Amino acid sequence: MKTFATLAAAAMLCCAAAHAQTGAGAVAAGSRLDDVLARGSLRVCTTGDYKPYSYYRTDGRFEGIDIDMAESLAKSLGVKADYVKTSWSNLTGDFVAKCDIAVGGVSTTLERQKRVFFTQPYVVDGKTPIVRCADADKYQTVTQIDRPDTRVIVNPGGTNERFAKQFFTHANLSVYPDNVTIFKQILAGKADVMVTDASETLLQQKLNPGLCSVHPDKPFQFGEKAYMVPRGDVAFQQYVDQWLHLALSTGEYQAISDKWLK
């Protein structure tokens, strides 16, 4: 009887070990990392409307800091990067359905975190105003902006709209659909203020003489940018995190950033 019990216990242990090995193998085999390598392509979701991170050119090509970074990631994997154009309103849904990674100045939020994983952050950023230079002293604080006679303009679907609707409840708020030409609306006198990421305001004041970033070194709130990767896929997340860690540590990211910002 004791021998039978011993044999039964041993059999159960063997089955458990085999099951554990099979399970571990299944997890590894199911990683997006293996899919990308087998497919030979990295599917990259990006909006293409957010300089300096991602911009969709008239010739149908994408460019920017995060496009160069996506190309670097694809090269490290030995695959090509295939881009999927999306919008801020549809970013998370399109990423889950169509892509392996999402890039392009994506801010980390808890709402997005419910459906995706994020890599380690690569930029610390935050919301700050951009205005006509003559008005810079008028719009230093949320209170100064949140007045009925202030025309606040914002692009739809992302963290800019969420911030504006939360904090500018008294201002005259309008949603403008094109995040590329939205800054021209301020220059033309059709709007007074846009509050967006400090990194974007620094670039846009260079591209649009007459516009000034307001205290970009002291934004209204804390924010970070990272890349979206599939929720639950630790193997793929770890690979992308390690690649990003090396890019940040070796100066590769800084060189790419300087190329677009300086």
Automatic annotation (TrEMBL):
One GO cellular component, as annotated: cell envelope
Annotated PROSITE patterns: SBP_BACTERIAL_3 (PS01039)
Major subcellular site: other
E.C. code: 4.2.1.51
Swiss-Prot/TrEMBL keywords: Lyase, Signal
SUPFAM superfamilies noted in UniProt: Periplasmic binding protein-like II (SSF53850)
Compartment(s) of residence: Cell envelope
Enzyme class: lyase
Residues of the signal peptide: 1-20
GO molecular function: prephenate dehydratase activity
CDD domains given in the database record: PBP2_PheC
Residue ranges of domain Solute-binding protein family 3/N-terminal in the record: 41-262
Family: Belongs to the bacterial solute-binding protein 3 family.
The protein, known as: Arogenate dehydratase
Naturally occurring in which organism (per UniProt): Burkholderia cepacia GG4
